[in-house]
Design a protein that fits this description.
By secondary structure, the chain is of the alpha+beta class. It has eight helices and four strands; from the N terminus they run H-H-H-H-H-H-E-H-E-E-E-H.
Length: about 180
Amino acid sequence: MQIARPYATALYDLAEDQKAVAEIESGLARLYALAGESADFARFLRSPVINADAKAAAVEALLKKGKAHPVVSNFVKVVARNGRLFALPTIIQLFRERAAEARGEVSADVTSAAPLSKTQLSTLAASLKAKIGKAVTINEQVDPSLIGGLIVKVGSQMIDSSIKTKLTAMKIAMKEVG
């Protein structure tokens, strides 16, 4: 987190100066989703075995193919060259939180077993808005190990309705009984 915060702050300031916060946030959201959905990409970002230049070249090709916003592309290249790609998901998360805060929104991290549909995301956002009283930006992640259900984190609050957690609780309860 300590490494990620200065990068996120610098990127947000640059995005604000260029009046492109929404476009940059959208491009970063796609990268964040890719890191969450692809175990291979997440391992690539964290791998200490792959040198910074090779990572930078691979990420550059990926961003070029995805037609990323120039600021996003240049920023990720700098992060890669500095050997900080392992912190990219945290940098993106902090950037999105700062952008949401600037809009008067609150950020919610939602982890589900499978990708949520647009309808499910909008229903969840509306429910959270009713509970919190502020507009909610959802940062979605996918974790198939949850089996089903959701884990929702808003600030310091967490709601875990995942089947994985319920099964673990049942397993512990059964050990105590037996």
